[in-house]
Amino acid sequence: MRLTKANECLKEEKNDLAAANETLTKRADQLTGALQKLQKEQHDTIQRLILVTIYKDDESGAHVVRVSRYAAFIAEKIGLNAQEVHNIKCGAALHDIGKIGIPDGILFKPAKLTAEEFELVKLHTVIGANILSESCCETIRTAREIAPTHHEKWNGRGYPHGLGGESIPLTGRICALADVFLRNIDSIRQIKTQVDCTENEVALAFSAEQPAEKIVRLKDYM
User: Fold this and answer.
1) 3-state class of 128 per DSSP?
2) Is residue 134 part of a domain?
3) Cα 67 to Cα 18, 79, 177, distances in angstroms
4) 131 part of a folded domain
5) Number of Cβ atoms within 10 Å of the Cβ of 31
6) Which residues, 6+ apart, have CB-to-CB distance to 165 below 8 Å?
């Protein structure tokens, strides 16, 4: 009699555990679906921010895409993880988003800028940082770090804050390297001709094994 009751109790407990497990599984599936939906929405938002940058200037739009790809290439080569590479790829694509706050007459001026006009152009770094500030999205936080630091230089002669060396965030240094790599020399073929530097050598020069101050071949930008 007692054994029968014990078996019945065990059976009930097993049924309860099975029901609880089924509930947890359904809840986990719901949370996974919600997370995937949130990630897609974040990705969509980031892509639309990138489009804002591209539509501001079609010519620089192509440059933005290339900077994004090269920044990701460098990040991967120096050993950053997949999520960090993704964040830098998207963040680098937004490095010039602050230019939407610069008057077109100055931004697209065909002649050389005056000193005063150039000071206004420099503000795109600060404007970009303001646009991207206070986000809870990790990727946009990376972009927020890149926007105000991609024109800083290793020698401290950059802008807007004159940061130097490792006081410049790694993300900003990676984007700066990709930006200059592509702006100063329009193609990999020209790069090989003018500075005798392959893609792999650029990434290697930026790695932990070789301090960033050695990248003087790229106009001492870092």
Assistant:
1) helix
2) yes
3) 52, 18, 9
4) yes
5) 10
6) 154, 156, 212, 213
- Position 136 in a domain: yes
Q: How far apart are CA 92 and CA 135, in angstroms?
A: 16
Q: Which domain holds residue 81?
A: 2-214
- CA dist list (Å): 152 to 71, 164, 174, 202: 16, 7, 11, 18
Q: CA nearest 46: which of 100, 102, 99, 87?
A: 87
Give the chain's domain count.
1
Q: pLDDT tens, 182-220?
A: 876 554 445 455 555 555 555 444 444 334 444 333 433
Q: Coil, strand or helix: which one is 32?
A: helix
Q: Which is nearest to 152 in space by CA: 222, 70, 97?
A: 222
Whole-structure pTM value: 0.72
- Residue 209 near residue 79, CB atoms below 8 Å: no
Give the pLDDT of residue 207. Answer: 43
H-state helical runs in the chain: 2-56, 58-77, 82-93, 104-107, 115-122, 124-132, 138-146, 170-183, 188-195, 199-205
Domain CATH for 54: 1.10.3210.10
> Would you state the structure tokens that stand for residue 180, as one six-digit string?
């200059």
Provide the 10 A C-beta neighbour count for residue 103. 11
For residue 220, give the H/E element and its range: none
> Would you list the DSSP string of 161-212?
S---GGGS-HHHHHHHHHHHHHHTSSSHHHHHHHH---HHHHHHHTSTTS-G
Which residue matches tokens 């392959």? 198
Residue 143, domain member (yes or no): yes
